[in-house]
Amino acid sequence: MLNRIMRRLDQALPATPVNAHCDGPCGVYDPASARIAAEAVLSMTKKLLALEVPDSSDKAAVVKYHNTFSRYVAIKEKEATVAKNEILVLWTDYFKPHHLEAHPEIHDLIWKATKEISYAKVECSLHHAENVMNYVKQIHELFWKTKNRDIAWYTAS
Q1: pTM for the model
Q2: Per the structure, how many domains does the chain have?
Q3: Is 17 part of any domain?
Q4: For labeling, which of 105, 131, 152, 153 is most exposed (least CB within 10 Å)?
Q5: How far is it, in rounded angstroms, from Cα 81 to Cα 117?
Q6: Which domain holds residue 48?
Q7: Residue 42: helix, strand or coil by DSSP?
Q8: CA distance 19 to 21
């Protein structure tokens, strides 16, 4: 019954179509969140590679090692997903056709960055984690260029 009432109401008073570039048209975009997440990926990768595997006869040390290892991997995975999502939001919601005309490298840069993030998730590779940071830096520079602003690149770590 409620569905019938809603259909009649919609027919009598149709809503005006609206368009927004994203789910919440706030207009606030900044690659900083991608940088922070990418830094966490790099940090966790370094920490994972620095972990010392304990003697298998020391059960407490083995448990501690596995606990620490799994926590670092979980953080690396989560932050890599955040970095990828933040970059994809810039690509799908911020960058417009006029940006692409001025900077035709946008699509290739975003594609390479998100692929590199996938590699950083799949592997525990300092090479891939550093590449992620490099791509995020390039995206940072390109993003601020589209706003005609010179915002310095910096890292928190």
Answers
A1: 0.82
A2: 1
A3: no
A4: 152
A5: 8
A6: 30-146
A7: helix
A8: 7
